[in-house]
């Protein structure tokens, strides 16, 4: 397994931890701290967006940019697309 995949797996683990924290807070019922849960949920949303971007970048890089048959113009367009995805 390459380093990028390992990092994404670790990222998923952190995201699962964040969601588990929200779940536990909600399970407290009326004693739940909604502010704490909402901040953690917002953080997990940002984390998921980072994971999504990493996954798309890895997929496009591995499936397309690593191919030898692409022209330099095609590669340039893919790099532009990756830049757009990353924001």
Summarize the structure.
With 87 residues, the protein is mostly helical.
Would you write up a description of this structure?
This protein is mainly alpha-helical. The protein has a single domain (3-86), classed as Up-down Bundle (Methane Monooxygenase Hydroxylase, Chain G, domain 1), CATH 1.20.58. It is built from three helices and no strands. The radius of gyration is 18 Å and the shape is elongated. It starts with a helix and ends with a helix. The mean pLDDT is 87.
Which H/E pattern describes the elements?
HHH
CATH classification class: Mainly Alpha
Portion of residues in helices?
over 70%
What is the β-strand count?
A: 0
Task: Provide the β-strand percentage band.
Answer: under 5%
The helix/strand class is: mainly alpha
How many helices? The count is 3
Q: How many discrete domains?
A: 1
User: What integer is the average pLDDT?
Assistant: 87
Q: Which runs of at least 5 residues are low in confidence (pLDDT < 50)?
A: none
Corresponding CATH architecture: Up-down Bundle
Rg value: 18 Å
| C-alpha termini separation | 27 Å
Using the coordinates shown, work out and report the CATH topology.
Methane Monooxygenase Hydroxylase, Chain G, domain 1
Shape field: elongated
Major sheet summary line: none
